[in-house]
Amino acid sequence: MSSSALNRTEDALRDVKLAHVPFPLTRVALWAITLLVALGFAYIVAVNPNFGWPVVGQYFFDPTVMQGLWVTLGLTVVAMIIGVVLGLILAIARMSQDRLASSLAGLFIWFFRGTPLLVQLIFWYNMSTLFPRISIGIASWDTNDLITPLTAAIVGLALNEAAYMAEIIRGGLLSVDRGQAETAQAFGMTKARALRRIIIPQAMKSIVPPTGNQLISMIKATSLVSVIAMADLLYSVQSIYNRTFEIIPMLMVAVLWYLFITSILNVGQGAIERYYNRGERGAATDRKKENTITAGAADERV
């Protein structure tokens, strides 16, 4: 195809795209309407006395609330670390050629993804009903001494997170070309070393973004531990409004803290995604340059 024909085709495509672009005044009108609706809603919320904004300001940095906030953050960090480590082990076992390891990992993932997290937390908290004592060899402990609200919360959150992280990590590992592992083995690397040095680093760009989503979900999931008397952020505000009967203002305190934390995490997740997408954008730019050069050479031949 000649260069003139290519130019005519590009002009036609550009005209089609422009035909679907709304008229600039329509865009301005839509933005203005959206802004007015948002401002109107914000004004209604701000002047509504039922929200109890003075109470929100009074208790926003209350020591009980701050202690619950630190418990929420601590649970999130500990549960995510354990979940990621267990998820990596489960993902490797799920991809293993060993039928027993693959089946056990699949059974674990099936169970913990298939049952609600709230049910799992209540189950762990009431473990003493099934097993009053836990024995390992000659050692024996009272179950209520081991399974406290804290341990029940950590175990429940971490095991549930491990099941989801296992599938995320497995998907990331499968996204790496199998030729990479074969090349590593050809250079004499063991499977474990090839996984650690070659496969996992390349899979990170597919693993990290959804892991960020899981971290944000974990922040919100910690609110479920309030049902087992774990003094997290939600439980802390509940303990206050049970005493003051300021239900809506105290719930707004929790909402604002959750929004603040997740907003920070969203910014961090966006930065991480941009970091891992730099290579893809560079490769796309290189491919575009190569296609341009190739097209130019073809036009010269024509």
Q: Any key phrases for this structure?
A:
single chain; 302 residues; mainly alpha; 81% helix; 3% strand; flat; disordered C terminus
Summarize the biggest pleated sheet.
2 strands, antiparallel
Number of helices: 13
Write down the Rg. 27 Å
Strand order of the largest sheet: 1-2
Proportion of residues in extended strands: under 5%
Gross geometry: flat
Question: Fraction of residues in helices?
Answer: over 70%
Description of the structure:
- The chain is mostly helical and 302 residues long.
- It is built from 13 helices and two strands.
- The chain starts with a helix and ends with a helix.
Produce the secondary structure layout.
Blueprint: H1 3-19, H2 24-47, H3 53-59, H4 63-94, H5 99-114, H6 117-125, H7 127-130, E1 133-136, E2 139-142, H8 143-146, H9 149-174, H10 178-186, H11 191-221, H12 233-244, H13 247-301
Antiparallel strand pairs: 1-2
Concise description?
Helices cover 81% and strands 3% of the residues. The chain contains 13 helices and 2 strands.
